Amino acid sequence: MTQNIRYALRTLAKQPAFAAIIIITFALGIGANTAVFSVLNAVLLRPLPFKEPEKIVALAPYDMRIGADNVNDKSTCSYPDFLDWCAQNRVFERVAVYTHQSLTLTDGKEATHIQGGLVSADLFPLLGVQPLLGRVFLPNEDEPGTRVVVLSHGLWQRRFGGDPTIIGKSLTLDDEQFQVVGVMPAIFSFPIAPFGPELWTSLSILRESKNGAQPMTEQRGNDFLQCIARLKPNQSIKQAQANIDTIDATLRRQYPDSNTNVAVKVLPLVDAMVAEAHTALLMLCAMAGCVLLVACVNVASLLLARALSRQKEISIRAALGAGRWQIVKQLLTESALLGILGGLAGLLIAVWGLDSLKSFLPAEIPRIDQLSPDLRVLLFTAIVSLGVGAMAGLLPAWRASHPNLAGTLNDAARGSSEGSRSRRTRAALVVLEILLAVVLLATAGLLVSSFLRLQKVRPGFDPTNIMTARLALPDERYGKPQQVADFYTRLLARIATLPGVRDASVAWWIPLSGSEITFNFEIQERPVPKAQRPVAQVNAVGFDYFTTLRVPLLRGRDFTARDDIKAAPVAIVNESFAREFFPGQDPIGKRITPDGSVTPGDPPVRQIVGVVGDSRLISLSANPKPQIYVPHQQFAAPAMSLFVRTQNDPRSITAALHNAVAELDKDVPLYRPRLLSDYVFSSIAQPRFNAVLVSLFSAVALLLAAAGIFGVMSYTVAQRTHEIGIRLALGARRSDVLRLIFGEGMRLVALGVVLGIASVFAMRRLLGSLLYGIGATDPIAILSVMALLESVAFIACWWPARRASGVDPVIALRTQ
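Above: the chain's sequence. Below: its structure in token form.
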């Protein structure tokens, strides 16, 4: 092997241009795959930092009327359902629930917003993590009346200077005293998200009654908790699914009002975390694989041509006693060495491009911040480098290892020539290159077209010059709806006086932020059983919300300051709601009852007073859903989003907004100030990433395919110089030669294009899930790809054909 490597190095050193071309070709293919594998490694393959993470599963409830295709770790359940799963299952060691919470930390310094996690006591033992200091929650600390907190390592260091005596001290969170019982290690974060918790509290807060209302943990059907579980030893996910199915069937019989249409899917936790990005990641892997395959085919064509030019050398080696396997081994050593060198260059390209890749990746993909090369990435690159080197060199080596000794060594032979079998092999490789290039180009064309259409989708509101921010009022001082309503009324009045402010309002949710809340509702004129009630998105908004966001009022009236908690309950619905539930009717005056209330008792019956245009709340690619808007003063939730439209750059008023809030209550922080246009931009981050990366891959594939066509045609001309000279000597016109060579090349291209289009049709189901407003077989996109590829192929075939038509027959016959 050492001898083979030395000989390979000497051989390649004699042809540095040839070696450089192959190394660059390999580097492009391997670099693309290493970059994509780095993403997969960070998101999917790198083990979660918990004990036996493969045993941790997510319990994801879903509506059986919709199906389980889109379930993920964000699917929510009610606390009573969670208790039933704990009591009745036979497959889980532990089951735990969690949700997020916004808290205000006040400890004598400036009030600070803290992103917290509300977790059941079993969560930390389930994950198998131990605190750095102190302890985690005890089972009885889920009971009402306890106030304990576990700090993250980052908050402990940043806010408390890493105080080792922090255990046992008190913190003021939302005007309540919490005792610190533990500090978690630096590597721990759960749930894993872009804005992970900085501290964790027990569920005791949720299990307490406020203002006489039923605690959230006693409301079956109030789905707000995410659930995970740890499998017992020797229990599989399939067994867990069967057990949960049995429990759910029982719950559907026992609680038909809330559980009739509810089922649960058991998923590995890591799969549930990346469920939304799974199809896109799979598609990127396939596209990167296509680029690598194009590179392999290109190199195989080059090595096949090089092997033909080395026929005499190989024949001499065979005549001197070298066996076929020895020749194959030598040639494979050369191609593997080229693959390794290409892999090293590809690794450098991938590492260099990771920072650029991060800027395109959607921030919502979990663990994307951990994107970096590690031992697994290096091992992948090494295996791929050796594999593609061997794969690209295997066919040329096998074909070259069986030379025609008599013909090759005959001094009378007129040089080397390529047989029909070799020509067919090289033609097949060209067709395969074209096929793969078509698949990549068509996919890129479809994704780019889809992305451009998505950019043109009107969100239903005008995000220009709007600053958003979040506020969360502590329950201790703002426990009554009237207190909450008064605070926001005074705040908006103060903001309206700021220089440059045109409009201001508040709402529960920020459009296109990925957040929503849905309620079942009843139409009073058409009562149905509770389990059959339809669902709509619900948003509590200030009375200037539609004016601020420029949402058109289509019928009826807007909310006014008179729609307070003492007035008759009212609601405004969107156009989709009116069209679905009141087709051909005027919904104004109709009465509906959305579930949910901020005061004890049954939710009030609300009269529809207006219809507004559709707004897209979750995604630009999803059709607007039925939406119900209620006046914030009648549904005064403490946590709200602020919207301020300005005449100029809205970022200039950020400090003034902080001051306006502080003047009303210095212990209420304003947090996450962000332009509304940024939410719109971020909402299409995944389609933009798909379009950009696949377009880059397709450009590389097109370049490699063009180089492959050019190389094959150039080599064909060189091999057929003698034949062309004879044709010209016998009276063939130069245009005939041009047409002959050019036609052969374009026939290969046409065959590759046809097979490539057929492959795209076969992939239409996978592509369809990634597209918006365009079919996977869109004729315009397909024809555009064909035109582009044919144009590039035309140029790649034209130059060799033109050179062939310019052959001097006298010189050609003399040299042959």
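The CA atoms of residues 296 and 391 lie 7 Å apart.
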